[in-house]
Amino acid sequence: MSDSGILHHITTLVEEEHRLRADAGKPDHDADRLRHVEEQLDQCWDLLRQRRAKREFGEDPDSAKPRDPRTVEGYIG
Fold first, then answer.
1. Over the range 43-59, which residues count as b (16 or more CB within 10 Å of their CB) and which as e?
2. Reported pTM
């Protein structure tokens, strides 16, 4: 997936995240879906950072691979 494709996917996920957060107090709120969307967003941002780093150091950005949610969620900032 290209950088622009990843950014497009991020935009779509952010829109969904906003909808899910707006519904947080409602009875039909889907907390599991919100958690999944948050994980996907973290994975997408991580993949985009990997691609940019590879490009910066002369490597092939297409060799970047999505990491599993446990790895990405376990980062300590």
1. bbebbbebbeeeeeeee
2. 0.88
Chunked into runs of 10 residues, the chain (77 residues) has average pLDDT values of 96 96 86 94 96 97 94 75
The Cα 18–Cα 7 span in angstroms is: 16
Q: For residue 11, how far is the Cα from the chain centroid?
A: 10
CA gap 22, 25 in Å, rounded: 8
Residue type, 46: D
pLDDT at residue number 64: 97
- Domain spans, the chain: 3-73
Kindly state the tokens that stand for 52. Answer: 């940019």
Alpha carbon distance 46, 8 (integer Å): 15
